[in-house]
Amino acid sequence: MSVNRIDQKFADLRVKNRAGFIAYICAGDPSMQATCELTCALDEAGVDIIELGVPFSDPLADGVVNQLASSRALAAGATVKALFECVRQIRTRSQIPIVFYTYMNPVYRHGFDVFLKDAEEAGVDGILFLDLPPDEDDANPELQMKGNLKRIRLIAPTTPSARITMLTKDAGGFIYYVSREGVTGERSDVADTMAERVEEIRKATSLPIAVGFGISTVEHVKTVSAAADAVVVGSAIVKRIAEHGASPDLARKIADFVRPLAQATQR
Q1: pTM for the complete prediction?
Q2: Which domains does the chain have, with CATH numbers?
Q3: Are 59 and 106 a contacting pair, CB within 8 Å?
């Protein structure tokens, strides 16, 4: 079995003593072809891992910026099948690790096992199911992960210690620590409790810890990089995709915005 790209990336980052930079974009916004171009441009701009949001009509964990991105993608004709084809196109040009960020409804509609199989065959490395808590695993054995895909788990600021142990038990790739309560969206500062919570999670797992929600500036990235293994920036990027979506230079403009953020992960 080949080494998963996420695992390989974090191994490389450890050697370089650098935090990783994870960029979130909504697949299909403004089009699937644009998503392919954006992913490749972000790879060249220094992004380490791409999170591709699977468009969904009721994205409850997302703030207005990402909700609108999902709506634009669906209005433009985005489908799960088209997303798999998009990943296949990306793989002809880039080996950047790709994580699907998805709600369960699109997965159920496609078929859980078929979704996992099609995702892995297309070139996806991990999946973050936003609304599938670990409590469902024992009750629904058909929802177990299969193949070489990594199951990314979310931990929130309010997650108690006992539940952190439960969440990290069968996780893979990395742990995504949601640094703030509420939905996605830019914030003016990094949560004061971020570093303390990251250290608490480290006691329960050897997996890398990525911190996201509300991170949007170089200073935010530097602060998080000092404590965590990776930084996730989403809404700040998606906001600029909305602003420049009609521009023929979209990929370049987004790469120019992201490049200094990715460079700020140097320790």
Answers
A1: 0.94
A2: 5-263 (3.20.20.70)
A3: no
